[in-house]
Amino acid sequence: MSDAAWLALCRINGLGPQRQQALLERFSHAAACFQTGAGLLQDLGLSAKQIQALQKDPEDLIRPADRRWLNSPDTDLCRWTDPDYPPLLRQIPDPPPLLFIRGQRSCLNQPMLAIVGSRSATAVGAATAEAFARSLGETGLIITSGLALGIDAAAHRGALVSGTVAVLGTGADLIYPRTHLQLAHQIIEHGLLVSEQAPETGPHSGLFPRRNRIISGLSLGVLIVEAAENSGSLITARLAMEQGREVFAVPGSIHSPLSRGPHRLIRDGAKLVESAEDVLSELGPLFGALCQARPVTAADHWQPDDPHQAKVWAAMNFDPLTAEEIATRCGLTLGELSAILLEMEISGYLTASPGGRFCRLPPAP
Question: Which whole number is the average pLDDT over 346-360?
Fold first, then answer.
């Protein structure tokens, strides 16, 4: 009865988090909200239809998808009244009273950092997000993001082993986009899928900005990697600022439209970061132990033995260059350069970008 009541609250049309919260404060637990007298509900700002729904048995309001959720061994609920409800999420103005979760519930009470950015990420941007996620995950932070294309997916991939939380804008029984179905199953193994939406809730544009407040609300801070000026990631950053969380931004090329979002945030007070240590140093004494320098890897100071490759490496940077520009800088013919670029790309030190351009891939931060 109790879990059915929680789900029934979610099914009452227009009964958002704030009114649900008011009901829970009045009646202490979800089941007590139902079949109470209509007079006890009059001063809570509820509509006549909402009051009428609360006179019913919760079992009459829930749907077959809700029953499947309750009966599945692979799905769970985190209620506002549960002791492991995420403490940071409790602090936001409109926390969801109920979270639908799949995966490792223990992630809910571990320190989290969000990494978000453009759905149309460049290869360099995706590699940067993945590298930051991997390095920050190794320090003990759980990486949160929104399972979207581009930067979100790269952040999740970087933290698959250490743990990552994907906050969905759909019901947690539906994966959107469908191309991330395999990634979602990988996340469940070491992390968590989270949604405030009831089962079988499909993707709607209005749900994703609401999803963003949970991403930032769960996290100590938000790191933005590549975002256009009108990007949804900037909504997450704004919400994080309103929630009193740290906001970090990775700068980029002044010529890239995807740098405008991070650069605007930096002008507005976000912390410019170039390494994982830059993030950790801002998170306060609680993470002092996490700020120890990570071991230096071969990629950090990689210098090719082949003199031609070394010359190409020195001539390149993280902004895309055409083969002609690289050849001119190196004094090589395009034929000579082509073989060198292929070898370096296979080795994982550079990437081909649209328009026949090439750039270095960043080492792990």
Answer: 73
Token pair of 79, please?
């209620």
Which residues lie closer than 8 Å to 138 by C-beta, 6 or more apart? 162, 294
Q: Are residues 156 and 143 in contact, defined by beta-carbon separation less than 8 angstroms?
A: yes
Give which of 177, 174, 168 is closest to 150, Cα–Cα.
177
Estimate to the nearest angstrom the gap between the alpha carbon of 228 and the chain centroid. Answer: 17
Beta bridge partners of 144: 114, 165
d(CA 56, CA 243): 36
**In the structure, what pLDDT confidence band is assigned to residue 315 with cuts at 50, 70 and 90?**
confident
Q: Give mean pLDDT, residues 252-260.
A: 92
Distance from chain centroid for Cα 19: 27
CB 137 within 8 A of CB 157: no
User: Under a CB-based contact definition with an 8 Å cutoff, are residues 123 and 151 in contact?
Assistant: no
**The CATH number of the domain covering residues in 307-360:** 1.10.10.10
Token digits of residue 67: 């029953």
Query: What pTM was computed for the model?
Result: 0.81
Q: What percent of the chain has pLDDT over 90?
A: 60
Token duo for residue 57: 């048995």
Looking at the chain, the whole-number percentage of residues with pLDDT higher than 70 is 91
Contact status, residue 330 vs residue 311, Cβ threshold 8 Å = yes
3-state secondary structure 297-329: CCCCCCCCCCHHHHHHHHHCCCCCEEHHHHHHH
Cα angle 214, 218, 224 (rounded to 5 degrees) comes to: 80
How far, in Å, CA of 251 to CA of 185, rounded? 32
Reported as a single tens digit per residue, the pLDDT across 175-203 is: 999 999 999 999 999 999 999 999 999 99
Model confidence over 5-27: pLDDT tens digits?
Answer: 999 999 999 888 888 888 988 88
E strand or H helix at 115: strand 112-117
CATH entry 3.40.50.450 includes domain 105-291: yes
What is residue 354's three-state secondary structure?
coil
> Band of the pLDDT at 297, cuts 50, 70, 90?
very low
CB neighbour list of residue 284: distance below 8 Å, 6 or more residues apart: none
